[in-house]
Amino acid sequence: MNHIIELIQTLICINFLFCPRYYFKIHDGIFIVAEVSFFEIINFYHLNDTVVVIAYLGIYAYALAKFKNSNKRTLVNVVLYFVINSFTQLICSGLISLVSLKFPLDNQIGSFVIIDVFALLLLLIASRKERFYRISQYVLRSDWLTWIAMAGSLFVITYLIVVYKASNYFRATDYWVFGIVTILICILAISLQKEKCEKTAKEKEIALREQYDTMFEDLITSVRRKQHDIDDQINVIYCQHKMANSLEELVALQQNYCDWIEEDSSFSHLLSIKNPILGGFLYSKLGQLKEAGCIVKYEVKVAGLTCAMPIYKFVEILSVLLNNAREAVENREKKNLFLKILETEEEIRLMVQNSFDYIPRNELVHFLELGYSTKGKNRGLGLANVMEILQEYNGEIEIESDKDEEDAWISFEIYIKKEG
């Protein structure tokens, strides 16, 4: 008898979690027949109670088949069903236990039936005015789902403790119920946390795209404008022989003019970058570096920049390294800065090199420590943040310092694995 009541509880709770109103479909009948038949087989063949776990899996299959929603919503509502049902049973068990102290029941089976009947009535009352449906909608939208899941797990544990106190033993099914609910809650929490991270990454990527798409369009416009000037530039080169008094002077004039053209068109190669976020960012950042007096050279060879790391994280690392390089050469006579980004089949390599005092190898490791900086107190947070990002995405970093006759320099080279 109590199995039939529990099945009715399941139908009511599951249906009102998915819909504002209850509606009957053939799935309901199949579910009831299948569950009743299953328990009859267990009783007839005296099977171990642990096989009842299949009945709980049947609830998930029933919800998925009848309502045809996503796995996520089905999983959420099945977890909520376990939480609500356990909480309802807990309340009714407590009330019946208090009543039985004054009016003892003749047998334990009768008390279970009474508990199930009262739980069914409580579910019918609680499910009115679309309460369960609104709870489901709220949980699906809520960022506090992990806390709700933890609270639900607490209710299940509390209910099992009450059952244990009442009967002085745990049924095998109680262990299965607790295990299944815990696993479902863990899967749900991990799934939603992953979805939240992906949503955050997507939002930040959209924000970056809106910010740097305009800059990338400015780069395209600038390059197109320079393309229109190419005829004038060729004419200038042709006419320079009229300004020179000797072959050496002509060569020098042409060399200087060609250097100017190359410098003026230095950002044209950024158009080869197929990722507009990276292209727009580099166009903006390298322009700022040139305005600050840095002698910037770069080599960028990337395709779609597909790697395990989100683009906004990659730009964050790049921004830290370039900002550090600008500050490092700010008060130096030589302000050389070199950027290299290479994409291979296995990884993406990023290197930022700038003029700097020679640093012995045993001191380079301190650059990655939180708070360490050559620029004074309350600095050194940028590279520590870079290290956190690289640890999260299994990236690597190498620091090298060297010097030659012309300059001393320091370089930061980063290796990021490509996507699976």
What does this structure look like?
With 420 residues, the chain is of the alpha+beta class. The chain has helices spanning 2-18, 26-45, 53-67, 71-102, 108-126, 131-141, 145-167, 172-228, 230-239, 247-264, 276-291, 311-329, 361-364, 381-392; strands at residues 295-301, 336-343, 347-355, 396-403, 408-417. The chain has a 5-stranded mixed β-sheet, with helices on one face. Helix 4 (71-102) crosses helix 5 (108-126). The chain is elongated, with a radius of gyration of 35 Å. The protein starts with a helix and ends with a strand.
List the helices and strands and how they pair.
Layout: H1 2-18, H2 26-45, H3 53-67, H4 71-102, H5 108-126, H6 131-141, H7 145-167, H8 172-228, H9 230-239, H10 247-264, H11 276-291, E1 295-301, H12 311-329, E2 336-343, E3 347-355, H13 361-364, H14 381-392, E4 396-403, E5 408-417
Parallel strand pairs: 1-2
Antiparallel strand pairs: 2-3, 3-5, 4-5
Helix pairs in contact: 1-2, 1-4, 1-5, 1-6, 2-3, 3-4, 4-5, 4-7, 4-8, 7-8, 8-11, 11-12, 12-14
Residues in helix, %: 55-70%
The topology string of helices and strands comes to: HHHHHHHHHHHEHEEHHEE
Supply the helix-strand structural class: alpha+beta
Strand count, sense and closure of the main sheet? 5 strands, mixed
N- to C-terminal distance: 54 Å
Number of strands: 5
Shape: elongated
Annotation field: number of helices: 14
Radius of gyration computed on alpha carbons: 35 Å
Uncertain runs:
none
Q: What's the mean pLDDT score? A: 77
- Taken as a percent bin, the fraction of beta residues is 5-15%
Task: Output the strand order for the largest sheet.
Answer: 1-2-3-5-4
